[in-house]
Specification:
- It is a single chain.
- This protein has 148 residues and is α/β, with parallel strands linked by helices.
- 43% of the residues lie in helices and 26% in strands.
- The protein is built from five helices and six strands.
- The radius of gyration is 14 Å and the shape is globular.
- The protein starts with 7 loop residues before the first strand and ends with a helix.
Length: 148
């Protein structure tokens, strides 16, 4: 497993201003599918189904929506940053500022667990979250992820 930012596509870091939860998830799904050649009609309903089971807003202003699909060849990650925050239905009832969406192969359970652990470790750091919210460009956000 390489750097975490190595799982991002060229256009899968988005700044999400003035959007609600469904709009944010749709924008990230669209970017992931475009960047990684994934089928939109498989990824987005999978994300929605997962959100229906339990919102993936884990607290600290973070959401980790994810889907695993049998046809996916590798893991793909998209990052959404909302300076204003999004009403997400999080466990702590606070707005979400950082959405890290992941789609990947159903058969790669170990890599999935490693990625989720790494993502959680990185985003739990207050300084990382603050740096992501201060980023002005996708390149800056990618550099923040690499730094942490």
């Amino acid at each position: 497993m390489g750097t975490l930012s190595g799982y991002f596509g060229a256009n899968s870091i988005l700044f999400l201003d003035n959007v609600d939860k469904p709009q944010a998830l749709t924008a990230l799904c669209t970017a992931l599918c475009k960047d990684f050649g994934l089928e939109y009609m498989r990824v987005c309903p999978g994300i929605a189904e997962r959100e229906g089971l339990m919102a993936t807003g884990i607290g600290l202003g973070i959401a980790l929506p994810h889907v695993r699909l049998p046809e996916a060849q590798k893991f793909a990650i998209g990052l959404g940053i909302s300076k204003a925050g999004i009403d997400y239905g999080s466990l702590d009832k606070k707005p979400v500022h950082i959405i890290l969406m992941m789609a990947g192969p159903a058969r790669s359970h170990d890599e999935y667990l490693q990625l989720m652990a790494r993502i959680t470790l990185v985003l739990r750091q207050e300084s990382c979250r603050q740096a992501l919210l201060a980023a002005q460009t996708a390149l800056e956000a990618r550099e923040v992820i690499d730094r942490f």
